[in-house]
Amino acid sequence: MTIKTIKSGVLALALVLSATTMRAQESRPSPAATATGTVNGANISISYSSPAVKGRKIFGGLLPYNEVWRAGANEATVFKTDKKVMVGKTPLEAGSYSIYVIPNEKSWKVIFNSQTGQWGTGKNGSTRVPEKDVTTIVVKTVKTPALVERLKYEVTPKGVVLAWENSSVLVPIK
After folding, report:
1. By C-alpha distance, which of 83, 70, 159, 150 is closest to 116?
2. pTM for the complete prediction?
3. In sequence order, what are the residues at sequence separation of 6 or more whose Cβ sits closer than 8 angstroms to the Cβ of residue 32?
4. What domain range includes position 22?
5. How far apart are CA 9 and CA 29, in angstroms?
6. Same domain, yes or no, for 22 and 60?
7. Cα–Cα distances in angstroms (integers) from residue 68 to residues 14, 65, 76, 122, 171, in the given order
8. What's in the keyword line of the UniProt record (predicted)?
């Protein structure tokens, strides 16, 4: 074998593996999504995987009340801001944070955690390390006018809206 033949073989293998990886990501049941926007001069992006309802009861069913949820599917949801913002009445420095939620019937506790890059859940539930929580806020849930089939984040001038199934919350950000 020549070096040229070996290089050609390695290149062909790399292309096959790359195509297989891209195809696997495209076929995820909960596809990757991003919400972006500006709040009070801060550029905000939220990277998450968007699961579907698929006829299931989500809150109080698939996601039990009063238990930590990774606020998306697959990898933990990541909130990024390029400037210091206020989450409710608490400052949040520029940077990247994982978002977790503890849903309840009438309100949700939204948690910003400094650890990012982890898979959303582990064998015993969330991979969240509570000691790395930076801030939390309790927000009221609102019944959506129609079913929201896929989890959706939206950055608005008032903050971040998270909506899924028949519930939505606004996390106020200034």
Report:
1. 70
2. 0.81
3. 25, 47, 48, 49, 50, 74
4. 1-29
5. 33
6. no
7. 39, 9, 12, 12, 17
8. Signal
